[in-house]
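re the bet — no i am not wrong, look at it urself. input seq straight from the record:
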Amino acid sequence: MADPPGGTLTHLNPILNVTDLDASIAFYTEILGFKLLHTFGDPADFAIIGHGDHQIYLCHNCQGQRGTWLALFVSDPEGLHEHLMANAVELTMALEASGSEFRANDPDGHVLRFFVAS
């Protein structure tokens, strides 16, 4: 089979519109364990955060819209669920009885749908 147009897809990075860049960076780094990789602008209006090989772009009052959904696959959803509850993160769906899925909102109402990694 021939390569698709454009060749191999090497990355797919969502861009989230945020109203307070500093608060969003703090949420993703301090609560979810992402690393701040880079900011752009003075004052900063765009940031790249990363977790392993995965990145999310945060854009202050620009690209994207509130309520974007992200699917995140983690090795310990139960432990993460407890951690988010302990940090007063808004949970929008409780951990399922199977321990395989729950939902939380980030500071801008983006829906983080956590699943157990298979």
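see?? The longest strand covers residues 44-51. told u. also The first helix runs from residue 21 to 31. so pay up
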